[in-house]
Write a structure and sequence with these properties.
Elements (H helix, E strand, L loop, with lengths): L6 E4 L4 E4 L7 E4 L2 H21 L22
Antiparallel strand pairs: 1-2, 2-3
Length: about 70
């Protein structure tokens, strides 16, 4: 089992997600839980398609991190 980084963003109508390691692999959902479930299914489907097309499965190359910056007064 591999772990894939996904980026989840809030939208006007719910949430969207994508994986920086898998070009074109995206999902949407009304809630965070839903978009994460949908993204898990999208990744499995994407990797299955790559395997059937005899494309190499990419190794994860991205990671996430937070950095602290000074707060700006508004």
């Amino acid at each position: 089992m591999k772990k894939c980084l996904i980026v989840v963003e809030k939208t006007r109508t719910g949430y969207s997600a994508y994986s920086p390691d898998l070009d074109g692999c995206v999902a949407t959902g009304k809630t965070r839980d839903e978009v994460e479930r949908e993204m898990q299914e999208a990744i499995a489907f994407h990797l299955e398609g790559m395997a059937q097309s005899v494309e190499p499965i990419p190794e994860p190359r991205t990671y996430s991190a937070y950095v602290e910056v000074p707060a700006q007064a508004q």
